[in-house]
């Protein structure tokens, strides 16, 4: 027995140490679990938008090339050599102003000859009339004298017209867009000489579908923006096609644009907005605040320091705004920044309150506000638009 005691003691000691190690490990795990249960959730910083009823304007956007209402190639009506280019490319001209003058020496001589013949015919007619009164000439001679006078008058008029037509003139007020002849060149009737356009009134040529055509009518106002230009112009629907194009199935239309300051150059692509409908007193929110889910759209509102999920029933949309038919009410604090980092019941800290109905602040980067203005087709709305 005495020989086995040391071994038993050693074994007991080992078992005791092993039990102590296991006990210590269990205490550490228990302590870790208690620490997790006692942790406090860090609130998410968010921006909110105070929901209020507003009027939302729904627009129809029509795109197409912008061209002059009037533009034509002016051709020569007489033969002759180009003597002078009175108004060159880029010149602004008035209606009837000479653009190109041909050599009119022969035509001028023709006018002089016709006038001389006319003077003789006037004298002969007057003398014959006096003789006719005293029965010295017959009636047929009297009629012949009158006819020769009329022919002479017509010849003078024809010579003068040909002389005037040798000065090629602007058919309307506009700008010389191109010139096709040079000094000394011999032109013949029908040859293109210059091109003139009227850029003071432009037309946007677009088309609408069978669903959209019922919203457009002549004399409706339009706001037009242009690719590559910062300018915004006022326009008016001038014409709506009665018949759809058989190739595209769309109805053509024209929108006339005032360009009296010549700020817009023809040939650019224009985008016209025509007011389609006005939805009054609706709840409309930024589309960015809506989170799509397989079960439907949701959004989050801040209730005190807690985020709450709301299921939404969406209606019509315009640009970056969408109408909410159900799910939100006036006075709700809609989360418009940080909404994708929260869930129902998350702790939130409201750091900002949006100034614009689209959820923006004046301090937002220009790239954000400009992008929003581009997508909505105008300036970013503010709280005053509610």
Can you characterise this structure?
The protein is of the alpha+beta class. Among the domains are: 44-53 and 280-385, Beta Barrel (conserved putative lor/sdh protein from methanococcus maripaludis s2 fold); 62-67 and 198-278, Efflux pump adaptor protein, beta barrel domain (Elongation Factor Tu (Ef-tu), domain 3, Beta Barrel), CATH 2.40.30; 104-165, Helix Hairpins. It contains four helices and 20 strands. It has a six-stranded antiparallel beta barrel with strand order 2-9-12-11-10-13. A hairpin with a 2-residue loop joins strand 15 and strand 16. Helix 2 (105-133) runs antiparallel to helix 3.
Cα-atom radius of gyration = 44 Å
Indicate the low-confidence ranges by residue numbers. Answer: 1-36, 376-386
Sheet of most strands: 6 strands, antiparallel, barrel
Quaternary status of these chains? single chain
Q: How many strands? A: 20
Helix content: 25-40%
What's the N-to-C terminus distance?
99 Å
């Amino acid at each position: 027995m005495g020989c086995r005691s040391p071994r038993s003691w050693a074994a007991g000691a080992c078992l005791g140490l092993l039990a102590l190690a296991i006990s210590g490990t269990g205490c550490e795990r228990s302590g870790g679990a208690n620490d997790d249960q006692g942790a406090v959730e860090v609130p998410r910083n968010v921006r909110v938008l105070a929901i209020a009823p507003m009027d939302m304007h729904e627009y129809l956007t029509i795109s197409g090339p912008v061209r002059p209402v009037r533009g034509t190639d002016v051709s020569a009506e007489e033969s002759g050599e180009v003597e002078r280019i009175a108004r060159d490319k880029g010149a602004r001209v008035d209606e009837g102003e000479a653009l190109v003058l041909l050599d009119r020496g022969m035509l001028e001589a023709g006018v002089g000859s016709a006038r001389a013949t006319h003077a003789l015919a006037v004298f002969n007619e007057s003398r014959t009339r006096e003789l006719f009164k005293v029965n010295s000439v017959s009636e047929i001679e009297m009629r012949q004298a009158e006819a020769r006078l009329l022919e002479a008058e017509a010849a003078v008029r024809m010579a003068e017209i040909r002389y005037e037509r040798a000065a090629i003139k602007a058919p309307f007020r506009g700008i010389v867009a191109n010139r096709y002849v040079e000094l000394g060149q011999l032109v013949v009737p029908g040859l293109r000489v210059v091109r003139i356009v009227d850029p003071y009134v432009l037309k946007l040529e677009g088309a609408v579908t069978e669903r959209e055509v019922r919203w457009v009518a002549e004399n409706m106002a339009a706001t037009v923006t242009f690719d590559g230009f910062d300018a915004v112009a006022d326009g008016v629907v001038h014409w709506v096609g009665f018949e759809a194009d058989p190739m595209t199935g769309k109805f053509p239309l024209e929108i006339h644009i005032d360009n009296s300051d010549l700020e817009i150059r023809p040939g650019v692509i224009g985008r016209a907005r025509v007011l389609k409908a006005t939805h009054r007193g609706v709840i409309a929110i930024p589309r960015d605040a809506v989170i799509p889910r397989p079960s439907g759209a949701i959004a989050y509102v801040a209730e005190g320091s807690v985020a709450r999920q709301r299921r939404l029933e969406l209606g019509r949309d315009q640009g970056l705004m969408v109408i909410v038919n159900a799910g939100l009410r006036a006075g709700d604090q809609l989360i418009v920044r940080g909404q994708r980092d929260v869930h129902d019941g998350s702790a939130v800290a409201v750091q900002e309150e949006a100034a614009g109905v689209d959820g923006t602040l004046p301090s937002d980067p220009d790239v954000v506000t400009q992008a929003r203005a581009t997508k909505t087709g105008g300036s970013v709305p503010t709280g005053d638009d509610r």
